[in-house]
Structures are given as C-alpha cells and as structure tokens.
Amino acid sequence: MLSYLHGFHAGNHADVLKHAVLALLLDALLVKPKPLVFLDSHAGSGVYDLTSEQARKTDESADGIGRLWARRESFPELARYFDAIAALNPDGGYARYPGSPQLARHCLRADDRLILMELHKAEVRTLRHALDSDPRVNIHHRDGFEGLTALLPPKPPRGLVLIDPPYEVKTDVDQVADCLAAAHARWPTGSYAIWYPRLGVQRDQADRLLRKLSRAIPEFLVAELAVRPQADDFGMHGSGMVIVNPPWRFEERLGTLLPRLADVLATESPQRGTRGESACWRFEWLRRG
Predict the structure, then answer these.
(1) Which H helix or E strand runs over 286?
(2) Does residue 188 have a pLDDT over 90?
(3) pLDDT band at residue 31, thresholds of 50, 70 and 90?
(4) Where are the chain's structural domains?
(5) Where's the active site on this chain (predicted)?
(6) How many degrees, rounded to 5, is the angle at CA 146 between CA 141 and CA 152?
(7) pTM over 0.85
(8) Which residues are CB-contacts of 252 (< 8 A; sequence separation ≥ 6)?
(9) Residue pair 139/133 in contact by the 8 Å Cβ criterion
(10) Which CATH architecture has domain 21-46+111-287?
C-alpha cells in the first residue's frame, strides 16, 4: 500500500518533535571533525509547500511549526532546524518546510554523505528534483526496510539512521522492529532514531512497538510528546522517538528541550508522566530485563 502522502501532514506537531530530535542528534554528531553519513529509510519528497492544496486541507502545520516558529528565539538549541527553514524561505516565514532529508542536507558538511530511500514513485521524483544535484546525496527508489540493511555498514562508518515509515499498514510495526534488529546487528556502533505515532486507543501500537524493540536492542532512549489526551478515535494525539546509541550529551539536551516543546505545542497544560491520558511528555531509558 502506497496511499500515504506526507504533504497532508508536513510541519505538524509530530514533524516538529522528529525534526527537533534530528537537529539535536546532528548537532552532537557534528562536534567531531570525522565525516559521517545520514541514512533515511522513508525519505518522502524532501521539501513541502505548506501553502499547497494538500497542506491547506488539514492545516496541521499551524499547530506545529506555526506555534514553534513564533517562539523560535526561545529555542537557541534548535538553531540548525530554524536555519534550514529560513534557507528555503529567503523572504521570511516557513511556507516551504524541510523534510528530514533537506534538514540533514542543510546541516551536514562537504565531506559527509546522505543515503535516502523512498518507495513511492511520485515522492521519489520530487525528492530527486529537490536534492539530486547535491553530490553528497544518493537516492534509492526502493523499500527502505529492505534497503537499509542492504546498505549497512556504510562508508564512512559513523553516522545516523532515521527510520520513520508512515505506519499505514499493521505490519509496519513488525517491520520496524525487525529492520532495527537487523541493522543494529550489521552496524552496532551507529546511532538510530525511530519515529512512531501515538494514535487513538483502538489503533495505538506504540506499546507493542516498544516491547518488540526492547527484545531486539539492550537499551534505548524514549521521548514522547502528546499535544492532547488520548482519545478512542484514530487521530494522532502525539508521537515518539526511540534513540539507540545517542551521542555524548544528547540525553541532557533533549531532556531539557522536551518539556519546553510541550509548553509550546500541547493544547492542554503539559505534564510529565508515564503513558496515560494525562501525560503530555515522556522521557526515559528502556532497558531489557
């Protein structure tokens, strides 16, 4: 199934969490001068027009990047994220919004590499139009779950993998867990970031995903942000990121950032807690056993 198009959801609260985490990860990895590689299993189209018919149909960016952009001076640690947006919008604002590939491309240096995978034909076409002229970028029209393990370990042997499928089919949860286990076995020193949605009670599979990941990986960091309480319907009230092998000092910086993001994005008063209706953010290590 290839019905999902991220253009309907670009710049929403889940994108803000994902891209804020990605910006902090790249910040930490770029401290060292050694070159690195960024791999994205489900790259999408790279750049999104928030004034397009798709984006305006949902207007999700208004409660995502729209809120954060108005408060950007209060988030100096996200300077790379905001700079990537500003680079696409020389006349100001955030109408053109960077997906993860474009954010990474903006942050990385001349001797770093990007390896991007996308299966949707139309998205690949747009991705190539946006990024293919950059000699650092390699774009693969292939299934990211299959392609990721086939391309590991990468050269240079240092870097970050982003796994962020749309979870439009039930098997995505199993594939994410299996893909991470296989990738980690081939490249145990790499850093990994896995995005997942928090949905309504009847459709939420976040607990199942975390259980499966904990059986595959000895330990990982979990960061979640919910903008409203969980309901019974399908709607996405929040999202989370799993981080494997976070770089030095990343945990400290994300732990400070997360409650402040909740202050900006949550539609109800943010609280810290474990999974549940009242929790607006969560930050903890999960360890096997």
Answers:
(1) strand 281-287
(2) yes
(3) very high
(4) 21-46+111-287
(5) 164
(6) 95
(7) yes
(8) none
(9) no
(10) 3-Layer(aba) Sandwich (3.40)
pLDDT tens for 140-171 read 999 999 999 999 999 999 999 999 998 988 88
Residues within the annotated binding site for S-adenosyl-L-methionine?
A: 19, 42, 100, 118, 143-144, 164
**Distance, CA of 100 to CA of 120 (rounded, Å):** 16
Across residues 87-107, what is the average pLDDT? 97
Q: Which residues contact 25 (CB under 8 A, 6 or more apart)?
A: 160, 191, 193, 243, 246, 247, 250
Q: For residues 143 and 250, give the distance between their C-alpha atoms in angstroms, rounded to a whole number.
A: 30
Residues identified as active-site: 164
Three-state SS at 107: helix
Radius of gyration of the chain (CA): 17
Tens of pLDDT, residue by residue over 100-122, are: 999 999 999 999 999 999 999 99
Q: Which of 237, 196, 213 is nearest to 287 (CA)?
A: 213
Candidates 270, 286, 260; CA nearest to 237 is 270
Binding site: which residues?
Answer: 19, 42, 100, 118, 143-144, 164
Q: Are strands 37-40 and 113-118 parallel, antiparallel or unpaired?
A: parallel
Q: What is the mean pLDDT of the chain?
A: 90
